[in-house]
């Protein structure tokens, strides 16, 4: 039996696992179900980081680019500095990234202050998108050591920078809590009922439906670009597979918003199985451009180093 991953290995697994899922799924975004396996039917092929759809092989999308901005802000400021995160997001958006969500772009380019920029999107049809969920791996790792209340609060506050609908924050909070449990070596799937109880009451029923053991992505009532089916699909992929690789492949094969569903899946899967379970043929090909930041492009092993930095103890969250 393989040794259980260390807490640091799990933390790095969550951060790198999310980025790898993003890059693996990017070429198949908004395509049909099963496209990944149809194109690459044999697991282990070197060409799995194939590129396409405007993405170079191994290139990460806005999901990971925004996650890196969060990951660099947290240790730099010893905790959650929301104005700093928002400034980083705004600088990135102004540089014309290859991909950016419609609502995120509107919030970041609208000129409003950081603490009110997303408020008028509370009732927008896109307000409960998965754009906060997709970037949550670093903050989930960073705040896990501070306990459930702190990690839920941080998730909600980070989500609200760009997503005014509280439903987006509750989904991000749920992901934070599942990662917290996994980093401690416990089963995040067994922790779902307790995590649901920690959500705000008006959101519990909808999340309970998509996180139920018998839920399948085919039962989704919205496109998986919405926060509920995106998180539900990630938990389904984790529940119905037995490895990081299988979970992320299953996520990409769902079709639709494949980069984000795979990024969200890779977060708890990486935390459960550890960085050693993330195939090197995937992680070694990873490249993360950072528009607006001097032409920087992160390559392996830089995302792993970021993950390790997030585990260094700091002051309690502000």
List the helices and strands and how they pair.
Layout lengths: L6 H19 L9 H5 L22 H16 L4 H13 L7 H8 L27 H8 L3 H12 L6 H18 L8 H6 L3 H10 L16 H13 L4 H9 L5 H16 L6 H4 L3 E3 L7 E3 L2 H8 L9
Antiparallel strand pairs: 1-2
Quick structural summary:
With 318 residues, the chain is mainly alpha-helical. The chain is built from 15 helices and two strands.
Q: Find the count of extended strands (DSSP E, 2+ residues).
A: 2
Main β-sheet description: 2 strands, antiparallel
Instruction: Please list the strands of the largest sheet in the order they lie side by side.
Output: 1-2
What is the typical, i.e. mean, pLDDT? 94
Quaternary status: single chain
Roughly what percent helix? 40-55%
**Topology as a string of helices (H) and strands (E):** HHHHHHHHHHHHHHEEH
Structural shape: globular
């Amino acid at each position: 039996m393989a040794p259980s991953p260390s807490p640091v290995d799990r933390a790095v697994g969550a951060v790198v696992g999310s980025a790898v899922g993003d890059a693996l799924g990017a070429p198949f975004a908004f395509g049909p179900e099963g496209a990944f396996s149809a194109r690459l039917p044999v697991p282990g092929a070197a060409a799995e980081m194939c590129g396409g759809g405007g993405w170079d092989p191994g290139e990460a999308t806005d999901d990971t680019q925004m996650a890196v901005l969060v990951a660099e802000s947290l240790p730099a400021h010893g905790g959650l500095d929301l104005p700093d995160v928002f400034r980083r997001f705004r600088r990135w958006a102004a540089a014309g990234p290859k991909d950016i969500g419609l609502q995120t772009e509107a919030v970041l380019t609208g000129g409003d202050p950081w603490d009110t920029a997303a408020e008028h999107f509370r009732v927008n049809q896109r307000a409960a998108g998965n754009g906060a969920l997709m970037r949550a791996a670093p903050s989930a790792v960073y705040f896990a050591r501070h306990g459930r209340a702190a990690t839920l609060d941080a998730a909600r506050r980070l989500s609200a920078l760009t997503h005014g609908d509280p439903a987006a924050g509750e989904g991000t909070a749920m992901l934070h809590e599942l990662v917290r449990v996994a980093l401690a070596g416990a089963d995040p799937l067994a922790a779902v009922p307790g995590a649901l109880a920690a959500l705000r009451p008006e959101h519990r029923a909808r999340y309970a439906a998509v996180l139920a053991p018998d839920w399948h992505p085919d039962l989704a009532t919205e496109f998986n670009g919405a926060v509920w089916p995106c998180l539900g699909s990630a938990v389904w992929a984790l529940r119905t597979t037995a490895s990081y690789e299988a979970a992320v492949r299953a996520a990409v094969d769902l079709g639709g918003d494949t980069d984000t569903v795979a990024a969200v899946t890779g977060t708890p899967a990486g935390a459960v199985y550890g960085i050693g379970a993330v195939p090197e043929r995937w992680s070694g090909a990873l490249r993360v451009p950072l528009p607006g930041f001097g032409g920087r492009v992160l390559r392996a092993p830089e995302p792993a180093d970021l993950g390790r930095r997030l585990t260094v103890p700091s002051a309690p969250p502000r």
